[in-house]
Specification:
Elements: E1 3-7, E2 10-12, E3 18-25, E4 34-39, E5 45-51, E6 58-60, E7 68-73, E8 78-83, E9 92-98, E10 117-121
Parallel strand pairs: 2-10
Antiparallel strand pairs: 1-3, 3-8, 4-5, 4-9, 5-6, 7-8, 9-10
């Protein structure tokens, strides 16, 4: 059974940083594409970033490019999202998703996600 557990969220000031983690189990993490999506208050799911199994390719939404970095540790079945220079518009619940490198709109909900971790950016 696929299990994804996100952690690392919290309150950050604009310009601050947070590092999200996602512990994965129940599937072959090292051979799976992985990604992050987020959901802002009152909004639908938004794709944030994706990474292929060997970390050779990483993809970012334009809104986070240059500020966020996705990475993974296949030995420990863990996905990360380093978020720097945070902005108020980054406030959302962040979810990691299995078998996802990119999604758009409603299709983002089709992917297995964890329970999410809340990120709030506010002064």
């Amino acid at each position: 059974d696929v299990q994804l557990v996100e952690s690392g969220g919290g309150l950050a000031q604009p310009g601050g940083s947070l590092r999200l983690s996602c512990a994965a189990s129940g599937f072959s993490f090292s051979t799976s594409e992985m990604g992050w999506v987020r959901q802002a208050p009152g909004e639908g799911l938004e794709w944030v970033s994706g990474i292929n199994p060997d970390s050779g390719n990483k993809y970012y939404a334009q809104s986070v490019k240059g500020r966020f970095t996705i990475s993974r540790d296949n030995a420990n079945n863990t996905l990360y999202l380093q978020m720097n220079n945070l902005k108020s518009e980054d406030t959302a619940i962040y979810y990691c998703a299995a078998d996802l490198v990119y999604c758009r709109g409603d299709e983002c909900a089709d992917y297995k996600r964890g329970q999410g971790t809340q990120v709030t950016v506010s002064s």
